[in-house]
Amino acid sequence: MLEPLRQGLPPLNLAAASDAASCALPARYEAVREARQFTRKTLEQWNLSDRFDDVCLVVSELVTNALRHALPAGARLTPQEPPVRLHLLRWEERLVCAVRDPSDDSPVTRDSEDFSAESGRGLFLVDSFSDGWGWHPMAGALSGKVVWALFRLPRPAEEAAPGV
Fold first, then answer.
1. pLDDT on residue 22
2. CA 146, CA 132: separation in Å to the nearest integer?
3. Dihedrals φ, ψ of 147, to 5°?
4. Contact by Cβ (8 Å): 29, 65
5. Where are the alpha helices (DSSP H) in the chain?
């Protein structure tokens, strides 16, 4: 699922991910709050609480976009297969937030000069608060796509080079 995350990024050894967590999110807007709560709990467990504000904003935008734009209109969704899933993966110096949804359509960034608009700036915020973002279609039997955002983390103090 995450192989395309490597495109355009420094090499990531997926087997070396030190932590990973995911949660299924139902097709309702309360799922955004659930995603924020899951993110807070996960980042606390990983001692990354200081990154919560930026990561939470990005997670909220990615989940909101999935719920608003990626779910089929009027589709009957079964509780056995929640339509949206949030993945958090951490390497020593990187954190990736990835949201999987059932749509094959690519995310669309809007160029809006109306800064008072109440919507349409989600991917602009993702781009502004993360160190990079992208998306890729799912492979194999899974349909849909994954939209991801990357956060660089500071090097652990004990491994930082002197004078850095």
1. 94
2. 14
3. -110, 130
4. no
5. 30-45, 52-69, 122-129
